[in-house]
Amino acid sequence: MAFSYIQRGRGFLAQILASLLLVSITLPSSATAHEVMPAIADMARAGDELTFDIQMNAESFIAGIDLAAVTDTDAAPEVATYEELHAMDPAALEARFRAFWPTMAENIALTADGAALAPVLVGLTVPPAPDSEVPRTSVLRFTAALPPGATAVQVGWAAPYGALVLRQNGVESPYDGYLQPGDVSPPIALGGGDQATAFEAFVDYIPVGFDHIVPKGLDHILFVLGLFFLSTSLAPLLWQVSAFTLAHTFTLAAGALGYVNIPGEIVEPIIAASIVYVAVENILSNGLSPWRPAVVFAFGLLHGLGFASVLGEFGVPANQFIPALLGFNVGVELGQLAVIAVAFLLVGYWFGKKPWYRRAIAVPASAVIAMVGGYWFVERVFL
């Protein structure tokens, strides 16, 4: 009977590890792939007209990718169309976008005091095609005529267009919000005054940080799992997570404030190397070594810079920078705790006290993590 349970446990774990390996290798790494990022919309009023300047990855919109369903355009069914568009010169891509614009305009939710507004395309500014592995950010400009006496507007677009950072310009106490896919903004006073409170900014950025870990932060997930598989005892995990949290909190703040700026070409390979290190040490050691928390702290500094680069992509409200930064960090921590909780419920709770746990579960799982981390390191350095 005991042997039967062991075999079932091993079979169950084998399925988990096979799925993890398949997903990890087939999903592109964050350093080289076309990661889905929110569009950034700057809204300003000029007389009886609203102007929107939206920084966005136009290729993903034209290709029809559901940006709410994927974390990377390379994982979308429309990837071939996306790559074709990505290789186009600016004039050709702008022409394709103009043909696409009527479809997009129908999916932009824009109202003033409840009355629908009609978006009018001004143009799309397209930079030259970058390296094939680097997303291209174009700037869409459109306008909308305001009805006489309009006092407030609401903005949103269809869920497949992904998340939207909406920033009001040219007024006192402007609105600045992060809209999840498919959300519509609250009424925004055209004269200003809708600036979020510190608490609102804090709460709004918690899901942003969580989303960067689950589901978008596969490399960070594997690093945390590497910490988890070292030992089933609580103390080693607490030492490591505390060191990692302290370190990445420090560099997240420093990087977001602009005090530290290390290129992603350096940070991302080292993040991959950190995954390999913790996984290999799990295989070679039986418990927490004296130097492990210090090494985890050092790697945490680099992971924090990776988190900061995400905030740099779409910005943090300048008037509520600290609360938003704290909210993002709390979201990251909740994401990490969610990963550990799921790993414990799936593996640790059932098998953690078994005498064969390390040989049959921790070592094979760490080996898979090391292979994936090694694959990413090679990809990020040489490919």
TrEMBL record:
Record flagged with keyword Signal: yes
Keyword Signal appears in the UniProt entry: yes
A Pfam family reported for this protein in Swiss-Prot or TrEMBL: HupE_UreJ_2
Record-linked InterPro entries: Put_HupE_UreJ
Record-annotated membrane-spanning stretches: 220-238, 266-284, 296-314, 334-352, 359-378
Keywords: Membrane, Signal, Transmembrane, Transmembrane helix
Signal sequence region: 1-33
Protein name, as recorded: HupE/UreJ family protein
Lineage per the UniProt record: Bacteria, Pseudomonadati, Pseudomonadota, Alphaproteobacteria, Rhodobacterales
